[in-house]
């Protein structure tokens, strides 16, 4: 058996007496009302949607950036592979030029081919020394 003592609240015009049990019930009602009001707050869900959308946008942006960087790296690797092939061709031409039985005309043709390959290698060097944002490395 619970015994509750009356609590007296005085107001200028009236005196209100409440038991401790009644005060507890009022506090419970207030807490339930706060929880109910918070559960009805429609802005909470909208805020979460906005946060999720922003996170998705950031992920998509990061994915695009990584894709661009990967493409740039692949393009750069392709240029380096082409450069390597051209340098190997130059080496073969130089070896051909060392042969004793090469005529002046053949030697002139070999030198012309070497000059063209050297120009191409120089162009590849110039292009491959650019960063992904187009700036030239020094």
Number of helices: 3
User: Can you list the strand order of the major beta sheet?
Assistant: 1-2
Based on DSSP secondary structure assignment, what is the total number of beta strands? 2
Would you list the SSEs in sequence order as H and E? Answer: EEHHH
Mean pLDDT across every amino acid position? 77
Termini separation comes to 91 Å
As a percent range, the share of strand residues is 5-15%
Structural class, please?
A: mainly alpha
> Helix content range of the residues, please?
over 70%
Q: Describe the main β-sheet briefly.
A: 2 strands, antiparallel
- Cα-atom Rg, whole angstroms? 42 Å
What's the shape? rod-shaped
Q: What are the segments in which pLDDT stays under 50 over at least 5 consecutive residues?
A: none
Quick description:
The protein is mainly alpha-helical and 138 residues long. 74% of the residues lie in helices and 7% in strands.
Account of the 3D structure:
Helix 2 (42-97) packs antiparallel against helix 3 (104-128). By secondary structure, the protein is mainly α. The termini are far apart. The chain has three helices and two strands; from the N terminus they run E-E-H-H-H. A hairpin with a 4-residue loop joins strand 1 and strand 2 (15-19). The mean pLDDT is 77. Strands 1-2 form a two-stranded antiparallel ribbon. The chain is 74% helix and 7% strand. The protein has a domain at 1-40.
SSE blueprint:
Elements: E1 6-10, E2 15-19, H1 20-40, H2 42-97, H3 104-128
Antiparallel strand pairs: 1-2
Helix pairs in contact: 2-3
Which key features would you list for this structure?
74% helix; 3 helices; mainly alpha; single chain; 138 residues; 2 strands
